[in-house]
Automatic annotation (TrEMBL):
It comes from the Bacteria. The keyword Signal applies. This is Outer membrane protein transport protein (OMPP1/FadL/TodX). Residues 1-20 form the signal peptide. The keyword Electron transport does not apply. Transmembrane segments: none annotated. Residues 39-48 have a biased composition (Low complexity). Pfam families: BBP7. Residues 26-69 are annotated as: Disordered. Keywords: Signal.
Length: 453
């Protein structure tokens, strides 16, 4: 019995020594497979593993490598390939997601903006009519060139938007980003010039008669009493500039789409101005004004709105091959600092003697005010991208922005006084200047290029 037990013990010891020799000393030599002959990695092995035992199983039961080959005793398998920590398939950038399987962590995009905004809102400020018809707003045969109930179109405004950002981690969960955008200062204007064959008027509401009226810049009654000749013009300008910085926080993602939460700071400035000028030479003998008297005047209304606040939003994207579709919903809350300024001047010239007055036609000589109001600025956008190269997209999109509380230049125009006081050489009696707050919107097309790096 003792001899039999001794032989059995030696046999078991020999088997254990053979197994240890096969495994070698790790990590100086790689471990053998947990199951003899299968070369399959077992739980607890290192992230890199070389099977030292040939795999004798049929090919349909053998493990393939990411390149399509089979794992054998010379193949190193990186376990990170089996469980990646992040998906780079959706790319990363503000409002233009990648349409390629790039692992780029940064982005830079530049866009051309073609936007248009809400119409100018102001009282009627320039009217024309036919021969013998006084250019009084609302009367039959009178055409309103600027202002009034229908407003005045500002036209298409070009602009720019530059965006950039960078993910702070390889998993693309947190990023910092920024934008600078704006619209170039553009002007829209209406003008009329007449040798009295047509009538030109600067309309007002006559506070003395409680009716619509007008200062006649040009008028001709058919030759009975002579004529008034002159010209008048109205011009408006709008300028917008904005910037923001955001922290992007991953909400969710899959291989072909992702959604990010945006939080950060927004600055925006919206400037609006409206000016009117006229020259009128009176040779009408049917009134009390000496023939040859020249009236000149100009008015300027300006408003500036500066916004500081925080924002929150959601940026999402979907990719399919070379195409990508991104959507942005963002709203900013904060303080709007409104500033209003107006100025005006008039002169009356007769026999080369110029007499200035203390104010303008629509505005006092100088006026200014400011105030702060709570405001919000929503922004909505959609953008389609096409990957022309692995790291370069062409994009086309649409953006809508809304300002809840702003001061606009046209809202300052009162236009309620007796126009007879214009030709009397005195100060016009008019109501106090208006400090109305209004809303404003803009929308348009965006064309751009996005580079990922």
């Amino acid at each position: 019995m003792k001899i039999r037990n001794l032989v059995l013990s030696l046999t078991l010891a020999g088997l254990g020594l053979n197994q240890a020799a096969a495994q070698g000393t790790y990590p100086s030599a790689p471990p053998a497979g947990r199951h003899v002959g299968d070369g399959v990695r077992s739980v607890g092995d290192s992230s890199s593993y070389a099977a030292s035992t040939p795999d004798v199983r049929p090919t349909e039961f053998r493990t393939t490598t990411p390149t399509g080959g089979y794992i054998d005793n010379e193949t190193i398998v990186d376990m990170k390939m089996l469980a990646p920590t992040a998906s780079h398939g959706t790319g990363a950038n503000h409002y233009t997601q990648s349409a390629s399987n790039s692992s780029s962590l940064g982005w830079f995009s530049t866009e051309a903006l073609l936007w248009f905004g809400e119409k100018n809102r102001s009282p009627a400020m320039l009217t024309t009519a036919g021969t013998g018809v006084q250019a009084i707003a609302g009367a039959n045969g009178v055409n309103t060139l600027f202002g009034g109930n229908d407003g005045s179109d500002r036209g298409l405004q070009p602009g720019y938007r530059v965006s950039w950002g960078m993910y702070l981690d390889d998993c693309e969960k947190v990023a910092v980003a920024g934008r600078v955008y704006g619209l170039f200062t553009t002007s829209s204007s209406e003008a009329a010039n007449s040798d009295a064959t047509t009538s030109i008027g600067l309309p007002v509401y006559n506070s003395a008669t409680n009716n619509n009226d007008a200062f006649q810049v040009a008028f001709f009654d058919g030759g009975v009493n002579g004529r008034i000749t002159g010209n008048a013009s109205v011009e408006s300008e709008l300028q917008m500039f904005g910037s923001d910085s955001s922290l992007h926080l991953l909400l969710g993602r899959a291989n072909d789409h992702r959604a990010d939460l945006l939080v950060g700071y927004t600055y925006n400035r919206l400037k609006d101005s409206l000016g009117v000028g006229y020259t009128s030479t009176n040779n009408f003998t049917g009134d009390a004004i000496p023939d040859g008297t020249i009236f000149q005047g100009s008015d300027l209304f300006e408003s500036t709105n500066e916004f500081h606040g925080g924002h929150i939003g959601v940026l999402s994207s979907v990719t399919r091959s070379k195409l990508s579709l991104s959507t942005l919903a963002k709203i900013s809350f904060g303080n709007m600092h409104q500033t209003r300024r107006s100025s005006g001047s008039r002169t009356e010239e007769f026999n080369s003697v110029v007499t200035p007055t203390a104010d303008g036609f629509y505005s006092p000589s100088s006026y200014g005010s400011s105030r702060d109001e709570f405001a919000f600025i929503p922004e909505l956008g959609i953008k389609l991208g096409y990957a022309v190269r692995d790291n370069l997209d062409f994009t086309v999109g649409y953006t809508f922005m809304f300002w809840s509380s702003v001061a606009m230049a046209g809202d300052q125009v009162g236009g309620a006084f007796d126009p007879a006081s214009v030709t009397a050489g005195g100060v016009i009696t008019r109501p106090p200047a208006s400090d109305v707050s209004d809303s404003f919107w803009m929308q348009g097309i965006d064309l751009g290029l996005n580079w990922r790096f």
